[in-house]
Amino acid sequence: MNKDCALIIFAKAPEPGLAKTRLIPALGADGAARLAARMLATAVQRALEAGIGPIELCCAPDASHPQFQQLAHEHGVVLSVQGEGDLGARMHRAFQRVLQHHSKAVLIGTDSLDLGASALRDAAHALTGHSAVFAPAIDGGYVLVGLTRPISRLFEDIEWSTSRVMQQTRQRMAQLGVDARELPACRDIDEPDDLAYLPAEWRE
């Protein structure tokens, strides 16, 4: 394991009405929360398989949910809290904190089942020769970002949760002269139509 690269997983507590809310029309609040819990467990398992460094589970609204506590107890992941602000502010704050102690960090959510252990290893390796790495999402956002130093402007004035996120981020990187590598695009599970891409054994 490379102690120089930390892996941060952003996750909402898998509570009905809080997690995967855009899927509630298709799954109901309880079903959406169950799916969120399964995707959280999968993200942590893949992070463990990748073995790129210590894992931090950055939680919202806090770290008290039993699944967060169980993952910390069983796998030794560190728990932290995302805190206030929009997604960009919360991600920047996490990078600021973690990059005080590690030379590089990779941050993911729990929404993409395409993002496997090999992609996480590729991202960590990319940061050896680049200052940033991204895995775009097919819907126009991104499912992974990695940095070797905090860059607040990458996360400011971005239209989060829209199809313009990655495009705006590319423009910002060009303005700032950020040298980045992009990994292959991934699909994420956000909307009811995305449920068709769940593994067959996950469909109930």
Question: Concise description?
Answer:
The protein is an alpha/beta fold and 204 residues long. It is built from five helices and seven strands.
Please tell me about this protein's structure.
The protein has 204 residues and is an alpha/beta fold. The protein has a single domain, classed as Alpha-Beta Complex (Spore Coat Polysaccharide Biosynthesis Protein SpsA, Chain A), CATH 3.90.550. Helices cover 35% and strands 18% of the residues. The chain has 5 helices and 7 strands. The chain has helices spanning 24-50, 66-75, 87-98, 117-126, 165-176; strands spanning 5-12, 55-60, 78-81, 104-108, 132-136, 142-147, 180-182. Strands 3-2-1-4-6-5-7 form a 7-stranded mixed sheet, with helices on both faces. Helix 2 links the parallel strand 2 (55-60) and strand 3 (78-81). Helix 1 crosses helix 4 (117-126). It is globular, with a radius of gyration of 16 Å. The protein starts with a strand and ends in a 22-residue tail after the last strand.
CATH topology, anyone? Answer: Spore Coat Polysaccharide Biosynthesis Protein SpsA, Chain A
The quaternary state of the protein chains shown equals single chain
Shape: globular
What Rg is obtained from the alpha carbons, in whole angstroms? 16 Å
Question: What is the CATH class designation?
Answer: Alpha Beta
Strand order of the biggest β-sheet:
3-2-1-4-6-5-7
Give, in order, the helices and strands: EHEHEHEHEEHE
Low-pLDDT sequence parts: none
- The name of the CATH architecture is Alpha-Beta Complex
CATH superfamily: Spore Coat Polysaccharide Biosynthesis Protein SpsA, Chain A
SSE class: alpha/beta
Biggest sheet descriptor: 7 strands, mixed
Strand % is: 15-25%
Number of domains: 1
Distance between the termini: 37 Å
Number of helices: 5
Average predicted local confidence, pLDDT: 96
* Number of extended strands: 7
Helix fraction, binned, reads: 25-40%
Protein name: TIGR04282 family arsenosugar biosynthesis glycosyltransferase
Organism: Keguizhuia sedimenti
